[in-house]
Amino acid sequence: MRATVMYGSGDVRIEHVPDAHIIKPTDALVTITRACICGSDLWPYQQMKPSEIGNRMGHEFIGIVEAVGTEVRRVKPGDLVVAPFAWSDGTCIFCQGGLHTSCLHGGFWGGTELDGGQGEAVRVPQADGTLVVLPVGPDHALMPSLLTLSDVMGTGHHAALAAKVAPGKTVAVVGDGAVGLCGVIAARRLGAEQIILLGRHPDRIALGRDFGATDIVSERGEAAIERVRALTGGLGAHSVLECVGHGEATRTALSIARAGGAVGRVGVPQDATMPAAMSTFFRNITIAGGPAPVRAYIEELLPDVIEGRIEPGRVFDRTITLDGVPDGYRAMNDREAIKVMIRF
Ligand SMILES: [Zn+2]
């Protein structure tokens, strides 16, 4: 079969790899029908040291179950399934608590040991806990939005929950990538009254407004902080969603939360230390978040997608085939595309 392998910064190749197959009785074999490239795939694309063996890539996919191991009960051949970006057993103490990304028997796709989503097929460990059966066919018009349940929509939702978004609250979203835009959807869905999107790209801002952003802040640094304060009566936002992960965005997010407010961070931190330690301490800011347990949110968000109340699939602005993946990485890295979908 063919799959995406990254060998170093800027070096993404489509290669023949060993066919995915069932190894453990709890596995399923899934043929991919849709996958995508993630903003978090761009960190290794920018920084990975050259590797001889390379890393299999991709952690967001929808596919058809081809076969299951002898202990799999909840999914069967022929089912169309969506996979979260982390696999999990669904039964351990952390899964039962809704924190599937800390599953005692779970893990993440790709790397040097496991299949990744940017390939023709995947061996899915812990299939019963990991996969969610979709109630539509593989070419349904809602595929883009359903695919976002594997990561970006669940991650935006996680940021909103960590930031304690609730009806009537003022929310600020730092970052206009796919996760930030899904964070706007999540904030509106949870009843936020004012949603300030911090971003600069005209196409992304337009989509953010469609998703529910009430104010746009395109300044940076101190000017952005001043602008958010001006928009919130000088107080700052109750809830801040940090959807970028590097120093300046994190500093901005922590600085625009009002006293007693909360920052939900889902951008993977690119720095070893967190800024604004003193000012967040004295203002009693809650700092929460981490890798989103998107498996915990799929059942909750699925009806909103199926019934058309949210359209997170609009973050996809380019569709490619597997051969187009290397250029898809380039396009996202150059900010030519917000998010790229791979159709098999
Ligand atoms: Zn678990």
Element layout with pairings:
Layout: E1 2-8, E2 11-16, E3 28-36, H1 42-47, E4 55-56, E5 61-68, E6 80-83, E7 86-87, H2 93-96, E8 107-108, E9 121-124, H3 127-130, E10 132-133, H4 143-147, H5 152-162, E11 170-174, H6 178-189, E12 194-198, H7 202-211, E13 215-217, H8 221-231, E14 237-242, H9 247-256, E15 257-265, H10 277-282, E16 286-289, H11 298-306, E17 316-320, H12 325-333, E18 339-343
Parallel strand pairs: 11-12, 11-14, 12-13, 14-15, 15-16, 17-18
Antiparallel strand pairs: 1-2, 1-4, 3-5, 3-9, 3-18, 5-6, 6-10, 7-8
Zinc ion binds next to helix 2.
Explain what the structure shows.
- The protein is of the alpha/beta class and 344 residues long.
- The chain folds into two domains: 2-151 and 294-343, Quinone Oxidoreductase, Chain A, domain 1 (Alpha-Beta Complex), CATH 3.90.180; 153-289, NAD(P)-binding Rossmann-like Domain (Rossmann fold, 3-Layer(aba) Sandwich), CATH 3.40.50.
- It has helices at 42-47, 93-96, 127-130, 143-147, 152-162, 178-189, 202-211, 221-231, 247-256, 277-282, 298-306, 325-333, and strands spanning 2-8, 11-16, 28-36, 55-56, 61-68, 80-83, 86-87, 107-108, 121-124, 132-133, 170-174, 194-198, 215-217, 237-242, 257-265, 286-289, 316-320, 339-343.
- Strand 17, helix 12 (325-333) and strand 18 form a beta-alpha-beta unit.
- It is globular and about 60 Å long.
- The site of zinc ion has 10 residues, from helix 2.
CATH architecture of the largest domain: Alpha-Beta Complex
Number of structural domains:
2
How many strands, which pairing sense, and closed or not: the largest β-sheet?
7 strands, mixed
Beginning-to-end CA distance, first to last residue: 12 Å
